Amino acid sequence: MAFFERLNSTLEKYLMPIADVLANQRHVKAMRDGIVYSIPLTIVGGLTLIVANPPVSKDVVATNIFLKFMVAWRDWASANADAIRLPYNMTMGLLALFVAIGVAYHLARSYKMEPLSSSIISGATFLIISAPLKEGSLPVTYLDAKGLFTAIIVGLLSVEITRFLKSKGVTIKMPEGVPPAVSSSFDALIPLIINVLLFHFINLIILSISKMIIPQAILASLAPALNTLDSPLLIVVLALVAQLLWFVGIHGAAVVKTIRDPIALTYLAANAEAYLAGQPLPHIFTDTFWAYYMVLGGSGATLGLTLLYLKSKSKQLNAVGKVALLPALFNINEPVIFGTPMVLNPIMFIPFVFVEAINGVIAYYIIKWGLVRAAFATVPWTTPAPIGAFLATLDWRAVVLVLALLVLDAMLYYPFFKAYEKQLIKEESEKENSEAELKA
User: Fold this and answer.
1) Same structural domain for residues 120 and 258?
2) Measured between alpha carbons, how far is 155 from 258 in angstroms, rounded to an integer?
3) Residues 166 and 295 in one domain
4) pLDDT, tens digit, 9 for 90 and up, residues 389-426
C-alpha cells in the first residue's frame, strides 16, 4: 500500500498539473474540439472507401451466392468509381480545410468573439496558402490531412490576429440600427484582409526561398518526426500516460487525444490515399488501431475483465458485469471504471495501466509483419471491435486479431480479478453477517 500511496502522490505532483493545463488551455481545447468536429467527415469518407473497394480481388469467380454478390459489388464499384468516391473527395479530401474552420470557431468562442466570421477568415486564409490557383484550377493536394498541421496553425493564429486587431480598434464600426449580420460582416472585413495579405506574403517568401508553399514546407520539416512517431514507443507512451491519469481519476484518453488525433488522422489519410492508388499502406498507428486493438471495451482494455465479472462470485462485480457488458461492447467502459472501481485501486493497478499498451505493441508487430492489413478507413469508435476492425481494414484476419487480444486481456486481468474478488467476497460476507446480527 505504501508503494501505491507514493505513486499516487507522485502522479498528483507531476502528471496532474500537466493534465490540468492540457485539459483547460484554450488553444489546446480549440485544437481538440476542432478535430473532433471533423470526425463525422472521416467516418463518411471511410464508409465511402469501403463501398468503393469491396474485399474481393479481380481474379475471383462467382461460384456461389456469396461470391456472386461480392463479384457484382466489385463490378458495380469499378463501373461507378468516380461517383462513389465523390463523398470521400468532399470529406476526407478536404479534411484540413474543415479543421481550419473548426479550430478557429472553437478558439473564437473561448474568447467570446463572433465564431462564424472567425471561421470564415481562417478558412479563406488557409485556402490562400494551401491551394493557390494554377491555370484556373484549385489544387487540392494539401487540403486533406497532409495540410492538417497547417490548418491548426492557421486556425489559431488567424483568431489571435483578429483578436489583436479588434483590441486595438482596427475594425469597421457600423452605426446603430444596422442589422447584426451586416454589422458583423463589416466588423470582420479588415481582419480578413490583414490575415489574407499577411499569410499570403509569408507564403510567397517561403515559396521564393524553398520552392515550397507553407503546408508543403511544414510537411517536409515534420516528415522525419512523423515517421518516427509511427512506432511501438509512441503507442506505449500514449497508453501509459492515458492510463496513469485514469488511475488517479482524470480522463486520460481525453488528455492524450490532443496529441494523438492529428498524428492518427494524418496516418489514416495517407493509408486511404495509398489504398485508393493500390499501393502498400505506409502507416500502422491510426484512430481505428487505438479503438479496436488497444482499448478493447474502453480505456484499459476492460472488455475481457467485464466478461470475467459475469461469472464472479462477488455480488458487486457480478452486478457491474451485467450492467457494463452492453456499453463495453460499444467501447464505453465508465460503468467498469467507476463500478469496480478502477480509480486508485491498488489491486487493479498493473493490468489497468499496462494491458492497453501490451495490446498496442502486439497489434503493431502483427500488422508490421504483414499478418493483418493496416486500417485505411474510419469507422465510428462505438462500433463493436471485431466489426469495426474488419470494416476499417476489409481484412478478416483483423477479426481474429481482436478476438485473440480479447482472450489475452482476460488472461492478463484474471489473477488480479481473482485477488480483488476474494477481497470483496470477504467484505460482502462480513457485511451480511453484521446485518443478520442486527436483525436478530
Assistant:
1) no
2) 15
3) no
4) 998 998 999 999 999 999 999 999 999 999 889 888 98
> How high is the pLDDT of residue 287?
86
239 and 385 housed in the same domain: yes
Other C-beta atoms lying within 10 Å of the C-beta of residue 65: 8
Rg (CA), the chain: 26
Q: Model's pTM, two decimal places? A: 0.76
> Are the CB atoms for 348 and 342 separated by under 8 Å?
yes
312-320: long-range contacts, CB 8 A cutoff, minimum separation 24: 312/417, 312/421, 313/421, 313/425, 314/421, 314/424, 314/425, 314/428, 315/428, 316/424, 316/428, 317/417, 317/420, 317/421, 317/424
Q: Which of 226, 254, 283 is at the close of a domain?
A: 226
Domain end residue (candidates: 205, 226, 247): 226
341, 369, 322, 347: which is closest to 423 by C-alpha? 347
Q: Is residue 8 part of a domain?
A: no
Looking at the structure, do residues 251 and 343 belong to the same domain, yes or no?
Answer: yes
Residue 171 φ/ψ region, left for φ over 0, alpha for ψ in the -120 to 50 degree band, beta for the rest = beta
> Which residue is listed with cell 521564393?
208
Which residues, including other chains, have CB under 8 Å from residue 267's CB and lie 6 or more apart? Answer: 226, 230, 282, 283, 284, 285, 286
Regarding whether 215 and 114 lie in a shared domain, the answer is yes
Domain housing 135: 25-226
Residue 102 C-alpha cell reads as 473548426
Number of structural domains in the chain = 2
- Measured distance CA(74)–CA(394) in Å, rounded: 13
The full DSSP string for 309-332 is HTT-SSHHHHHHHHHHHHHHHTT-
